[in-house]
Amino acid sequence: MATATKAKVKIQPLGDRVVIRSLEEAEEMRGGLYIPDTAKEKPQQGEIVAVGPGRFEKGERVPMELKVGLKVLYGKYSGTEVRFDDEEYLIIKESDVLAVIG
pTM of the prediction? Predict the structure, then answer.
């Protein structure tokens, strides 16, 4: 039996940017009330799926500290949301990543 696997992301960020796939939090229904998607807060954590080559500083490239596969926390209103191959991604600068999770 074949198993479905995620295809590699074909987005290559430039400079010191990273592409993040948001980790959706489990939907909780409190008191039997349904919370619509428009009322939910944006997730602030995700998994890095692509990393740029790094920024230039004084004529030399500074390599990225972040790597593909890390789970990270990022600012609530950081970056640009893009839709690619029916998936939503967030492209942010390395400096907008607040922390690495576990």
Answer: 0.75
